[in-house]
């Protein structure tokens, strides 16, 4: 008898895959909670869990030390933890959904110019309109991300059939180089935008206010709903457009909802934290390895994994160059590049 | 049919059209070169430029042209040539029209080291003509070596090379971003100017180094490239035709990397010249594969033409890289659309 190998959780007999997957999701949520605690505790000033608890829910009264702890927890640790969870969820889900829609295992918002579209829009908005607060340029980042995404995905999926992975990557590389040059052209003449740009470009979850997190989360929430609604159709679309149509899927609607969802998720996350490459790609592959190709399970897994990885990246970034910090986006890129190279080595990407 | 030409052990096909186009391109390049050294804050008439070039100009013209403008134009010429040939080699080896030396990791590796040097030493290294180019070259070559090493798995294939190159480039980009975020804002502005590729204030020293290294590499490429054509048919056919494709590919790849490295160290990572020049040259000479020499000549034309545009048309002395990006971006889109339409057909 031949047993199909799907991954590490492949079927011991008698237990339903459904239950295992639910259990896995529960484990991931527990893991996320654990990392979130780490994220609250670790930093330039280490706090004990008890102190964090005090800071979160206690009344500082007039005690100066307690007031300080409350301040750290509320203005520094909580926002960055929340943002890492939300943005990680968004980027992870976006990565899995976009890989499904392009039927291309290399699809990743960072590699494909979406991020550089957002940076260009941010710099342009600062230089042209003198915008100062992140809440204002968040909208432009969203617009820029959407435009660049449409160009790369649209052009590389013109004609029939799924895009060639190589063409997609090279197109993304080209668009990135083009936009980077344009961004520099604007930034060179405008020191203020250059200064904002260099920090925003590093991809950090730190120092973002509640106002930005709130706005971005609203977009991301809509994106998550759209992505989840889209999943059954995505499963069928993966059989090929013709088969999907035969099974009663509205192909155009399915694709449109998917692309809108990805743009909202990736655009809002990028707008809030800056460009974070490789995250969506990495977690999508890990999620596929755990759950198999069913997008209804794979996408939620990828989302939760995204949160865990981004949060971990942020915590690691706080530890490695103490007391300074390494931005989460840089940690992720430095981990992500070897991961990607390993996938290439294992032959996970095939030439179309 | 084109007649064959045989000289000793070497033989090639006589294609009048290719020779004609390459010559026309060379003449055009020379003209743009002359205009480029004629135009500036103090514009010199073209006849005076020619007189100066053959050593019979006036003292003032000679100073302005030979000491101020010539090094810049010559560096542009050589860098363009190097980038064009490097691009043609990369595209031939990867067998993909969208490949350029950038994906071999050179550009981003060089950028990371250059930014490191600029930000770590403040202005000191920038003023020395040796420090920054040497650092950029070293960084670029080491990164390319890393890419090659990582992509090696019982030989090199274009597909794996590009993907690994892109991922290593992304990591290098992250390092660059990090360095920029740490640095002083004045150093950042200086580093950014380098990052987009510029021909500002070159000296004769830089001309000579760039020129000799490029000339030596081009010579190697021309000799080895006799083996290149059969490789467009794929490894098996090439092996059947008696080409040691592994060795040829390694040598040509090395030359492509070195050419791009020299170009990057001389002018910074000027974007798109290596991508665009071979593709346009290929269409002009009606060749099915990127022609080496014509690509180089067109690269030179593109670069000094863009530099001329940057100086004359654009405001506040923007670097040449902006112009090549403006030209290259739409062309990339065109290539993409075409590649897809062809696949769909």
TrEMBL record, chain A:
Superkingdom: Bacteria
Record's subcellular location: Cell membrane
Principal place of residence: membrane
Cellular-component GO terms for this entry: plasma membrane
A GO MF label: transmembrane transporter activity
InterPro entries assigned to the protein according to its UniProt record, in alphabetical order: ABC_BtuC-like, ABC_transptr_permease_BtuC
Keywords for this protein: Cell membrane, Membrane, Transmembrane, Transmembrane helix, Transport
A Gene Ontology BP annotation from the UniProt entry: siderophore-iron import into cell
Transmembrane feature ranges: 22-44, 81-98, 110-131, 137-156, 168-188, 208-231, 268-287, 299-320, 326-346
Membrane topology: Multi-pass membrane protein
Pfam families named among the record's database cross-references: FecCD (PF01032)
Record-stated family: Belongs to the binding-protein-dependent transport system permease family. FecCD subfamily.
Protein name in the entry: Iron complex transport system permease protein
Gene source species: Lentzea jiangxiensis
Automatic annotation (TrEMBL), chain B:
SUPFAM superfamilies tied to this protein: ABC transporter involved in vitamin B12 uptake, BtuC
Keyword Transport recorded: yes
Membrane topology: Multi-pass membrane protein
Keywords for the protein's UniProt record, in alphabetical order: Cell membrane, Membrane, Transmembrane, Transmembrane helix, Transport
Compartments in which it is found: Cell membrane
Transmembrane segments annotated in the record for this chain: 17-39, 73-94, 106-127, 134-152, 158-182, 207-228, 248-277, 289-312, 318-337
Pfam family of the protein (one): FecCD
One GO CC term on file: plasma membrane
Signal peptide range: none
Example of a GO MF term: transmembrane transporter activity
Major subcellular site: membrane
GO terms for biological process, alphabetical: siderophore-iron import into cell
Family: Belongs to the binding-protein-dependent transport system permease family. FecCD subfamily.
Name of the protein this chain belongs to: Iron complex transport system permease protein
